[in-house]
Specification:
mainly alpha; 0% strand; globular
Length: 302
């Protein structure tokens, strides 16, 4: 739904002139209202219900989510983890304690790599880049980017349990690195200037598709999975702070860097960061597909 919201915002940008910014802000109340209504009908998590002694309700929700056998297994794993968490909580929940540090740092690094691979520079400034490359309607081309993002995310939902988180992340960053390299060359070599519009649009769509099948959805999915329950909430918060600080840093410096060094050089930097991300994931991030939190933590503790 986040991706659909981004696409909707880009389409509003196509349909309305900048002078209608008040209308744009008013339109944003529609998805906010729908989210509010949707949350009213959402059930509590099975683990929370079980922790409050509401075991019948917990089993009903778990069965609805995972089926009869899967629900029982998930609740059993959650109960086992809860008992471990109680023992750990007596020792404190310092995020940088040795038993928590690995998951916390890994989560922060995954979001740092995600942002420094250039995704939000593409989302925020693709219209400007398209115009520099000679594309007449930068806003319409950006809407095509948003549509590709939705398509890639739909593809990812069908692959995440089959291919696995680690494989999708590695493939995603590899594709992002390749497309950034393509655009860096295409926008930086004078002989390719007549084709810069095609290279910018095609490369950007391929980049977004690569991002959407892995680095986008999987990063947010895997960070809670790799952290112990005692610090999971705070660990996810730390990762999200890293995400938004990096997001602001990229957003505030992209145009300045592009003016100083050229879009080609900045894209080459993003491509390098994507390569480093793929290498990091391949060598450090565990596969969490089909594993309980307990099994994942045993692997993380090795």
């Amino acid at each position: 739904m986040i991706c659909v919201g981004i696409l909707a915002a880009l389409l509003v940008n196509v349909a309305l002139p900048v002078s209608d910014w008040r209308t744009m802000f008013n339109l944003a109340t529609i998805p906010a209202g729908l989210l509010f209504l949707g949350m009213l009908g959402s059930p509590e998590s099975p683990a929370y219900l079980a922790s409050k002694g509401r075991k019948n309700e917990a089993m009903q929700v778990a069965t609805k989510l995972w089926g009869t056998h899967g629900g029982a297994a998930q609740l059993g794993a959650a109960a086992a983890e809860k008992s471990t968490t109680k023992a750990e909580s007596s020792e404190g929940s310092n995020l940088l304690a040795a038993k928590y540090r690995k998951g916390v740092i890994m989560g922060c690094l995954l979001f740092l790599f995600q942002q420094f691979s250039g995704i939000n520079a593409i989302v925020y400034f693709s219209s400007s880049v398209f115009k520099q490359a000679g594309i007449a309607s930068g806003a319409l081309a950006s809407a095509a980017v948003g549509a590709t993002n939705v398509l890639g995310t739909l593809i990812a939902t069908g692959l995440v349990e089959g291919a696995g988180r680690k494989q999708l992340l590695t493939a995603s960053y590899t594709g992002m690195a390749a497309t950034m390299a393509l655009m860096a060359v295409g926008l930086g070599v004078p002989a390719l200037a007549p084709y810069s519009g095609y290279i910018a649009l095609g490369g950007t769509l391929a980049y977004i598709l690569s991002f959407a099948i892995g680095a986008g959805p999987v990063t947010g999915l895997i960070v809670p999975e790799i952290n112990k329950e005692a610090v999971r909430g705070n660990a996810v918060s730390a990762a999200m702070v890293t995400h938004w600080v990096a997001n602001v840093a990229i957003g505030q410096t992209f145009m300045t860097a592009a003016d100083a060094f050229g879009v080609s050089a900045v894209y080459a930097f993003f491509g390098l960061c994507s390569v480093l991300a793929a290498v990091y994931v391949l060598n450090n991030v565990p596969e969490t597909k089909g594993k309980s939190f307990t099994e994942i933590q045993l692997e993380m503790d090795r």
